[in-house]
Amino acid sequence: MGMGFSGFMLLFNLYLKSLNFPEGRIGNIISATTLGTFVMALPASIIIRRFSIKRILLIATPIATFSYLMQVSVTQYHLILGAGFSAGLAAVFFRVSAAPFFMRNSTPKERPYLFSMQFALMLIAGIIGNLLAGFLPGIIKKTDIPTVISYRWTLYIFGCLVLVAIIPYFLIKEKPAGKIQKFKIHSRRLILRLFLPNLVVGVGAGLSIPFLNLYFKDIFHTPTRLIGIFYSGQQLLMITGLLVAPVIAERIGKIKTVVFSQLFSIPFLIILGISRNISLSVGAFFIRAALMNMAQPLFTNFAMESVTPDEQPFTNALLVIAWTAGWGVSASIGGYLIEHLSYTIPFFSTSACYLASTILIFIFFRRVKDKIPGKL
């Protein structure tokens, strides 16, 4: 699934650009997908409390595959929007179910490593997917077909690759969810404090991160194969950060690790906004991603351990909603700003949002004592 998703996401914006869609419309299409995720996130959290997660994933996977294939089978703007919305509805189950599934099937000592390793394995698959996405269009284009068709056929390949995830899903053995009790929220204030930083990060990310492939294409006229290599290199560094993060968290705690990693990523965003040197921009692209993304699994792990087991699916759904709602709204704004102004303002705005999120995390949780593995 990681190979399919990463390859599809790398090329989809470039494919839309080859269809002469402006950045504003591309941003709207991104927003449609995140709107589907936003709408379904809370219902999904209720569904996974009542039904087998394995069964849910086996149903959601073909729906997501069909939606992605539909997005590249039509060229009408509104049909692509609709297919993107449908893809968001199905894909939310992969995100909402993971954390509760891990909490249900692991020990406290295993979890920081499990969350980081799961993220790292997706990135390894992403490296392969991005490399393939960089080179496959060129290989297909050697048959003398137009660029847009080579993108389309490559996207078909990656859409179908998502469907292969059904095989490992069939092999899952899961513990039962236990007796379902009437759901009550006991930690309203805590959940709100977990929600707000994720919302601010989502708003910031949506302004610029979905357009990084277009950034290299527009600013530096980078060929697709090199963009694929850049994304693969980025994910390789992200894996390193994710594997190091639990070790750091054992020494200083999850919250301090999250605060420092997010804070140190901000200067590299600013470099992306002002640099017109490709070597400097690629270096900033690598380091920013490694620092920012090493925080994500640790914050999710911290959130799951901070609430009661019955609240975990609901809390995880709210975290997904916060991030995707922010991303969905701001992607349209980011596309508009890029189309009519430049890439600089979105990158600076993302930096401001990341700083605000880091400050919120520090204020809300600086006095919270982390549950450090081995010291529970």
What's this model, at a glance?
Helix content is about 80%, strand content about 0%. It has about 375 residues and is mostly helical.
Given the structure, what is the number of helices? Answer: 15
Radius of gyration: 20 Å
The level 1 CATH classification is: Mainly Alpha
Overall, the morphology is globular
Domains, number = 1
- Say which CATH homologous superfamily is assigned: MFS general substrate transporter like domains
What is the CATH topology descriptor?
Answer: Growth Hormone, Chain: A
What's the order of the H and E elements?
A: HHHHHHHHHHHHHHH
Ends: how far apart? 34 Å
Largest sheet: none
Instruction: Report the CATH architecture.
Output: Up-down Bundle
What is the average of the pLDDT values? 82
Mind explaining what this structure looks like?
It is built from 15 helices and no strands. With 376 residues, the protein is an all-alpha fold. It has a single domain, classed as MFS general substrate transporter like domains (Growth Hormone, Chain: A, Up-down Bundle). Helix 2 (23-50) packs antiparallel against helix 14 (312-340), helix 8 runs parallel beside helix 14 (312-340) and helix 11 runs antiparallel to helix 12 (278-293). It starts with a helix and ends in an 11-residue tail after the last helix. 53% of the residues are buried. The model is unreliable at 372-376 (pLDDT under 50).
